[in-house]
Amino acid sequence: TQLTGDTIFLYIKNQTADKILLDQNGLIVKEAGKNLYNQIKGNQITGYFSGQTLDWMHVDGNAESIYYIKDDDGGFISVN
Known about the structure:
8 strands, single chain
């Protein structure tokens, strides 16, 4: 997973990552398969952690995404 932004703030609670703020030109890229990457970008992205993994995110302003859809057997069937 790649996280980028003009400024990145990491908020910590109880000595573990709690949330991350990608301020101005936020971009998250995650590999979906060989040479396929799920992507989301926006003016500001706030991501929330569950344990040590990024659980969900909120994109604020001019959100755009590319997401690869899989069927029940794990094969790619579409891209949104």
